Amino acid sequence: MTDFPTQLFINGELRAAKSTIPQINPATEEPFCSVSAASFEDLQDAVQGAHLTFVSEWRDLTPRKRTDLLFALANLIRKNSESLAQLECRNIGKPISDARDEVELGARVFEYYAGAIGKFFGQTIPVGRGGFDFTLRQPMGVVAAIVPWNFPFPIACWKAAPALAAGNTVVLKPASQSPLTAISLGKLAREAGLPSGALQVLPGQGGQIGDALVQHPLVRKISFTGSTAIGARIMELAARDLKRVSLELGGKSPNIIFADCDLEQAASSSPMSVFANTGQDCCARSRVFVERPVFDRFVELFVASTRKLIVGDPAQDKTQIGTLVSSSQREISEKFIAEAQSRGRRIATGGKRPINKGFFLEPTVLLDVQIDDRVWCEEVFGPVVSIRPFDDESKMLQEVNASPYGLSGSIWTNNLQRALRLARAVESGVLSINSHSSVHLEAPFGGFKQSGLGRDLGMTAMEGYTELKNVYVAV
Ligand code: NAD
């Protein structure tokens, strides 16, 4: 089936490339299409075209016009939502109901930033010398948006929308495992009336074109979501020309359960805080800290809720847990589980492949894990959680903050003082209290420490796609 675009999208047109990347349906292990992989020449054309559109058209468009165009794109995303969701489901094994929610999120992100354009402005500042002083928020130029495979469509939208709204043009590089909805997004942007070159889409192997994209002299900012290792490399390369970077990276988020919380609610909500998207979520709360008096009861409830999760064909409406993105991604999780077992850790549930075909893996709960176990310290990026008891709040907090990461996390308690005390003390960019939500499109999203730099979403992201200029007028 090829009723969806599979080529590069450059200067308003689909373009075939010499080399291609096969796309495998992770639920069937069958290849179902091949996608063009950009060469260095394609990269040059894409960046040059984006630059030309920036200086000749997009930068100076009236706010009203830019608003109209981004609203038109949001409408087109909605009009095509079912086919986009089906495509994502097939490309990465994501449950169709999640894929539908994520396409809707993408449309809402474009609406949010379309509406923000006319409400985003500088300040006038009373300066010591008198006269008149004001600030301007100016677009940067070409933004390279590099996105991962776990949430391909919404992350592409939440980078492209604020960058375009602020007046930049965008070269979007999807991950080689999940390029399909990004190509469709480029095509829809053109259909919505955005100028050719405003949103270029360059599928390709990050290892091959990534460095060249980051170092291209016309690229002014790199907005990256992906692993901490690649994020660090991008920052290093960008530093040579002092390019702007924002990095959303890995995580090892805590889920902290106090004895005074609504335990039933915490235990029924918490499994999806780690197993949603088959655990391939930077915000996955894969370290659970439970206050000792309720430890056994919490584990019992958590395991029972986990066993009720519907694992299976991602194309079915009822499915809650689909596949991992690839065989190698599943092997990473299996290695963590095998290593934990070899050290005598207990598997309370899961650990096996539930279905013969497809990259499925059962949601897995590990007990008796020790604080120096790899599974307790490192990001798994698969459906594996470890649960440990704690006795003392301050010791637990030390352990939470000992992680090099600081992306997300939850605190479950009915004690307001404690909730606020810990909300301040946990070193993390995003936290939720009595909830497992991490992403609100109106609010900043990003990490402390090795989880990243800069913020996506909210008005903070839009600021991050501008340079701040101060102008003084002698009067
Ligand atoms: P990855 O770092 O391997 O790839 C991310 C993107 O970078 C892909 O498009 C890839 O092609 C590209 N890339 C690879 N090498 C590159 C290079 N040398 N130069 C430029 N680009 C290059 O990550 P992944 O496996 O796609 O995603 C999983 C990781 O992403 C996890 O660590 C996860 O925690 C993280 N993640 C973070 C967030 C967040 O918001 N913090 C969200 C989703 C995923």
Could you explain the architecture of this structure?
The protein has 475 residues and is of the alpha/beta class. It contains 15 helices and 21 strands. The strands form six sheets. Strands 13-14-15-12-11-17-18 form a seven-stranded mixed beta sheet, with helices on both faces. A six-stranded mixed beta sheet has the order 8-7-6-9-10-20, with helices on both faces. The protein has a two-stranded antiparallel ribbon with strand order 1-2. The chain binds nicotinamide-adenine-dinucleotide (NAD).
Strand order of the largest sheet: 13-14-15-12-11-17-18
Distance between the termini: 67 Å
Radius of gyration: 23 Å
What percent of residues adopt helix (DSSP H or I)?
40-55%
**Approximate shape:** globular
Profile the largest sheet: 7 strands, mixed
**Strand content bin:** 15-25%
| Bound compounds | nicotinamide-adenine-dinucleotide
- Total beta strands: 21
Number of helices: 15
The helix/strand class is alpha/beta
Short description, anyone?
This protein has 475 residues and is α/β, with parallel strands linked by helices.
List the keywords:
6-stranded mixed sheet, 475 residues, 15 helices, binds nicotinamide-adenine-dinucleotide, alpha/beta, 7-stranded mixed sheet, 40% helix
Question: What secondary-structure arrangement, pairings included, does this model have?
Answer:
Layout: E1 8-10, E2 13-15, E3 19-25, E4 30-37, H1 40-58, H2 63-79, H3 81-92, H4 96-116, E5 132-139, E6 142-146, H5 152-165, E7 169-173, H6 180-191, E8 199-201, H7 206-215, E9 219-225, H8 228-239, E10 244-248, E11 254-257, H9 263-275, E12 287-291, H10 295-308, H11 327-342, E13 346-349, E14 364-367, H12 374-377, E15 384-390, H13 393-401, E16 405-406, E17 410-412, H14 416-425, E18 432-433, E19 448-449, E20 452-453, H15 458-464, E21 466-473
Parallel strand pairs: 6-7, 6-9, 7-8, 9-10, 11-12, 11-17, 12-15, 14-15, 17-18
Antiparallel strand pairs: 1-2, 3-4, 5-21, 10-20, 13-14, 16-19
The chain binds nicotinamide-adenine-dinucleotide.
